[in-house]
Each structure stands twice: as C-alpha cells, then as structure tokens.
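Shipment paperwork, digital attachment
Item: protein structure file
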Amino acid sequence: MTIRSLCSTFSLLSLFSVLAVAADPAPVDTTRGDAMIAEYFRHETAKLTADCLADVRTKEDWENKKPEYRRQLFEMLGLDPLPERTPLHETITGTIEHEEFLVEKLHFQSRPGLYVTGNLYRPKNMTGKLPAILYVCGHGRVKKDGISYGNKASYQHHGGWFARNGYVCLIIDTLQLGEIEGIHHGTYNHNMWWWNSRGYTSAGVEAWNCIRALDYLQSREEVDPERIGVTGRSGGGAYSWWIAALDERIKAAVPVAGITSLHNHVVDGTVEGHCDCMFMVNTYRWDFPLVAALVAPRPLLISNSDKDRIFPLEGVIDVYSKTRRIYDLYGARDRLGLQITEGPHKDTQELRIHAFHWMNRFLKDEDPLIDKTAIKFFEPEQLKVFGDLPADELNTKIQESFTVVAAASVPESGADWADSTRRWRTQLQGKSFRGWPQAAPDLNLEPAFSAERDGIRFSAWDFTSQESIRLRLYFAHRANLKPDELELVVLNVLDEQGWRDFLAALRPGFEHQLSDETLPEGSSDRYEEQKILFQNFKWGMAYLAPRGIGPTAWDQSERKQTQHRRRFQLLGQTLDGMRVWDIVRGCAALRQAAPVTSTPLWLQAERNMSCNTLYAALFAPDIKRID
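Attachment content:
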C-alpha cells in the first residue's frame, strides 16, 4: 500500500497519533524544568537590560530615536492608532465646600461610553490662572455595602493639600477601582490571555484616560495650560509614568513607587504582586529605564521607599541611574531627582512632602516651607459622582473594544497572495515572534541513547533550542532501516497529554531508556501497534515536547503557570510563541540527527499544540504536510 492510498483510507491522525491511555497522570517531577526556566528568565532579562539605551551615546542619538520610541510605547499600550478625541461630555454632578477650597464631583467620557469619574479640587480664593495637578490613584479600594466610591476617595488628601496651596488638582478614578468597576487583572487571575493577542493591556486605558484628563484640565479657565504636573503612587505611580512619557503637556512629574527594573519583575518575581495595569504589552522588548528616559529633559522626581517589596530599591536605583545618563546629555541633571525614604510600600507623609516640594519648585518657581499636612476631610459618600451608574457604560467590558482589531482580506490573485503572505510573515516575525533569537544558536546536538528491541530502533538526542533551553528529540523506526531508506518521517509535537501517552506507548519495550522520566502505566496494546506499524512501513516517527512540557515541565500550580506566562509577556514573548520556536528548532535537529534531509517531513499535533505547529510550518523549511 502506498502512502497516498493509505492516507485516502485512514486518517493520518488516527493511525499515527499516540492513543490516550486511561490512567490518572502521575505527579510531575519539575526539578529540571524549574531550574531551566529560572535560568532562561535570568538570561533573557540580562540581554534586555544590557541593550536598554546602550545605543544612545549623544543627545543627537536620543533626539533621533525618541519619536520612534514614543510611537512604540503608544503601540504597546494599545494606542496606535490613537483613538479619536471625541467630545468629553463633561458633567459636574455636585460641589462640596470646605473653608479653604471647593470640590467639584464630575465625570467625562474619554471615548463614548468609557466614563472617568473624578473630583476637581480648587482654591476658594483665586487670582489668575493656576498650575494644575493630575493626580492618578493607586489601588485603594473604597467600597461599602457593595457600592464602590472610587479610589479617588482613598487619595483625597492629596487633592486637598494641592488646593490649599494654590493648585487646581484633578483626581481621577481608575478603571478597576472606580465607581464603575472594570477589570485590570485580565491575565493575572481572569485567564484572559487573548489580551496579548489583541495587544490590549489595562495600562492603555489608564494612559488614555490621563490624556483626556489633560484635555479636560486645559479646558478649565482656572488652569494655566503650560503648568500641569502629574503625580500618583503605586498604580498611580505607573500611570504617572505613562502620561509623562507620552504627553509633553506634563511639565513636571513625580511618579511614586510605580516603576522598577525588568530584573526585579522577571527574575526577582515582583511581577507576581502586580496587576496588568502596571505593564505595557512589551512587543519591542524594553527595559523600564526607556519609559523614564522619554520624560527627559522635563523635571522628574523618581520617588520610592527603601523597604518596598514590589518596587525594590535596587531596581529603582537602576532606573534612575540609566535615566540620569539621558538627562546628562541635555545638561539637565538638576531636573532629575531621586527620593528614597525609609518605609514599606505605603503612602507616607515623607513621600508626599518631597512631591509637594518638587511641584512648588517647577510649577510655581517657589520653595516655601511645607507647613500643612495632607489630611482627609470628607467621607467617601460625599465624593461620590454618580447616583445611578449610566446604562451606556462600556467600562466593564472595555477590553473587548479598546484596541483596533487587525483587518485582513483574501487576496484576489496569485500575485496578490504571494505579496500578502510575504507581508504577513514579516509582520509575524516583527511582532508576534519578535522575541525569537536574532540568530539561532548552534544546536549542540548530543546523542542521549539508542536502543533496539522487537524490531524497533529507538533513539534520542538532546539539542539547544535557545540559550538555557535544552530539549530532547526522540526517534523510532524499523531497526534494519538506515535513515536514508525511510520513505517518510513524521514529527509529533506533544502537549502534556500527548507526552504521557507517548511514554505509555513506548514503556513496554524501552522502560530502561525512559527511566529518568515519571512514567505512566504502560500500554501493551499500543506498543504492539507500534511494532506492526514499523514492520509494514518504512516510516520514522519523531517526538518532541516543547519547553514546559514533559521533561522540562516546571511548577504545575495554577499560580506559577500564570505568573511564568506573565514573565514571558514582560520579555516581549509568549510561552506558546517560544514553543513555536522550539518546534522550528526541533525540525532542524531532526534533519541533522537522523539525518533525513531528503525524506519528506510531516508535522503532526493535537489540541492547542496544533496551533503552534501550524505557525512553525511557516518558518521550518521543506515541510510536506501538516496534520
């Protein structure tokens, strides 16, 4: 029977696939995988850290690169193209009066249906236009009896201080902790990994709301549009970074406890304490000093405490040191400050005083003694904007529409198809798979074992997929066949279930060779099917478990699996995107190991690994068929 006639009679998948074995999976030993992935994260992070701003040597270098870097940041926040600046429909729903200042309760729509609730603090007695502060809130939930009053109520003392000292201050709620409660934690605990595919991050919504908040402030007759500053802590510190880096209407910035190094997040694990609003989708593989550098040469005070567990001191100093080099290019070191106070991750008085001093210095050209403390004057109920929440709000599902969905059409001719496929492949490499190595390292192929039994030759080789990622490729065929006598080779790409089934099928004949794995119960029936297959056909069957599966599986807990995937995102990768790379490298290893350079190579996979294998077939040469 020929290959073609066989395929017309049977499904390739039903004949070749390793049948599922009805048994509970044994506990997985993750020692190797945990060590491998930890080293991988260290190595990849070190590369990005070393590359950050390394090619900027002069002011001219930076000025030439800065527009593209800013464009990249807009894109990584889901803001390229920039949304239309639609009417704000600003509405004041009430006013609170204090003996020194007024508080307006207001809302506006940063885009239709995306509501931003806030409080605007302004002095009672005003002469001329005043400097303004955009205060962006951290994660301070204020909720009573199921009603959210917004984190603006938690951070009200900042607005009160600024108003009592001659500023207009707009405090805006965040998406998640506002009066209308949206979602910040899509990948953190909602399993919304499609956010990556959409190029969406809740950080982008916060950045856009800040941009529109500046539009609103500039529309106020009390505000001097040329003297606007931004500050906030924790999550608000992060949003201070986004708006200061993106929008030069910000003339002074004090991000408090809102940024640290990529090393802290990925290697030290502080990513596990942060929600998605703290991070852009890192397509262009930045370290965080690059965000800070985009503020230069405008006045910037980097503020943090020395015992902050989620913004560690070493990373904050690293960001400051690299940013300082850009300020030095402008001769503007006096506009860059580093404030470190004693304490934990907390809104302390010491942190506030330095922020107040910085704004006085650069927005008012004053340096008075700070003699008023920042205290809360109002109950949360007094600051609430909405009575009833608007029926047309999109806040709770904004992730479904915030970013623009890519539009594709079917080309109309063969020539158009060729042009389109070349363009799409370039886009895939430049965006989806930008985290692949720029140059493939040597495979460093080494034989692991080779054994023969029951007419089957079973071999394995270890190869380097990527620095720090060492994988094993398995290969089985009729014992008396040389590789160049094979009529067909199939590379089976295994997920975790496929890996267990593969071990069960080969264990009856090759338990000794597989003894360093956690073996499931063997399947004698499946082993017999393998023997018959190789007796009747001159075929080779190869097996590959990409990173994180089988021999390289790491901690299987849901939390660690989630946080490792988030680490990949911070490195400008995805776990499955790097598994696609593993499959491409597995094809190269198979061609070299067998060797089967002239033998037709087919790829086969099931379930989620099918998608990865399909992408790999676009980049691995000479693939004859995919199942």
